[in-house]
């Protein structure tokens, strides 16, 4: 069957999809987006975490056909997502000032002045040389924070953690340690003992707050 | 394999009637695991995500009507007041990612004895609304679980909603596992005080072939609370009553030894959870002033 949906702001079509196939398989094997990792295939590890209509889910447990017509954001789209958020916070979409402070721009500097319609970000995202396949552009603040805090070892769990942490900081810009632990409780890391990951999320939250106060 | 995508409830029922072997998929958190691991190859997958009403709830009246696909996250966020036991149980389901997709309909459809929603639904006295092209019926939760991973659904029926009476008193849920997230219950226990009917109901998970109530324990406790006029006086439950209640809850278990725990451990742990949840709920009941009010009214 054919599945049509939006991935990281770009309309995508996948053909000859087997009816029992997961969204994860379609992303990795048919759309060339290997950022979301395939590990447990049973929702235990969170390494395949993506956002489905904004909500973090295990893409290994979403049937590909269930993504029809929906919007998916993978780790490859995090930088663009952060940029769009920053622009919205700057009032670019006419919605006024940022309510949550959940923008943050460090590591993903705005290359266009505030005031550009939000829709333009989507058309930018559809350009072939964008970060769709991780090939270009900057990093989302959460990605930069993971690097700066040394929260990446083997890296296999990192994409899922990034998507989950980014979504939490969007919802909850001032998380307690308990909030962070709960938000990341569905993401297993077997290298770090999680301390550096906690550091990274705290760092991203602090930078985001600094940015919002500016 | 065919992927059926009904856009409405009527279409979904028609599809299930035409293909009784079709496997409904909503959150996918059970079904996709079985497909990913080659444990299941249904001829038809029946995607319920486009049936919007399944993701909605009504909480205006005395009873909450909870759509089968309302994600656990929404239950935690929006229904903690009217459905405290189910909200607590929802919070113990797997991880945020799973709670964003999974719902009570899937728990009921799978009917695993370890499903987290079951003890809360049993304790609250829920009813399951199921339907087919032949019509709609409501199955009392006590009659819903018929065996290990078996339920009372006919082949052409789908789960549409659960109806749960708005809580009239404190409810609790407790679960034993090796950590706070991503845990399939070693055992679980739900308890609801129903001051409006002066009854207590229980639910036991993962300690019998199906989720079960501890009926003898309920009968004992209801009689003891009545005899000592504790609903009126708001006095503490005597330790001897709590102990006997716990022992009867343990006795209601019919567990097995498996990779998650032994039968003996489960039996013991259910007793501990029963005593704890009784203490928590009864202390909350005493703290509400409800007992004092009733005492004043009766004087």
From TrEMBL, chain A:
Naturally occurring in which organism (per UniProt): Streptomyces minutiscleroticus
Keyword Iron: yes
Pfam families: Fer2, Fer2_2
One Gene Ontology term of the molecular function aspect: oxidoreductase activity
Keywords, ordered alphabetically: 2Fe-2S, Iron, Iron-sulfur, Metal-binding, Oxidoreductase
Record bears the keyword Iron: yes
Superkingdom, taxonomy of origin: Bacteria
Entries under InterPro entries matching the protein: 2Fe-2S-bd, 2Fe-2S-bd_dom_sf, 2Fe-2S_ferredoxin-like_sf, 2Fe-2S_ferredoxin-type, 2Fe2S_fd_BS, Beta-grasp_dom_sf, Diverse_Oxidoreductases
Domain annotation 2Fe-2S ferredoxin-type: ranges: 1-78
UniProt-annotated stretches for the region Disordered: 113-137
Name under which the protein is recorded: Oxidoreductase
Gene3D superfamilies linked to this entry: 3.10.20.30, [2Fe-2S]-binding domain
PROSITE patterns recorded: 2FE2S_FER_1, 2FE2S_FER_2
PANTHER family: OXIDOREDUCTASE WITH IRON-SULFUR SUBUNIT, XANTHINE DEHYDROGENASE IRON-SULFUR-BINDING SUBUNIT XDHC-RELATED
UniProtKB/TrEMBL annotation, chain B:
FAD-binding PCMH-type domain ranges (all copies): 1-169
UniProt superkingdom: Bacteria
InterPro entries xref list: CO_DH_flav_C (IPR005107), CO_DH_flav_C_dom_sf (IPR036683), Diverse_Substr_Oxidored (IPR051312), FAD-bd_PCMH (IPR016166), FAD-bd_PCMH-like_sf (IPR036318), FAD-bd_PCMH_sub1 (IPR016167), FAD-bd_PCMH_sub2 (IPR016169), Mopterin_DH_FAD-bd (IPR002346)
Keywords attached to this entry: FAD, Flavoprotein, Oxidoreductase
Gene3D superfamilies reported in the protein's UniProt record: 3.30.465.10, CO dehydrogenase flavoprotein, C-terminal domain, Uridine Diphospho-n-acetylenolpyruvylglucosamine Reductase, domain 2
Pfam families: CO_deh_flav_C (PF03450), FAD_binding_5 (PF00941)
Gene Ontology MF terms: FAD binding; oxidoreductase activity
SMART domains: CO_deh_flav_C
Protein name as it appears in the record: Carbon monoxide dehydrogenase
Organism (species): Streptomyces minutiscleroticus
Lineage of source species: Bacteria, Bacillati, Actinomycetota, Actinomycetes, Kitasatosporales
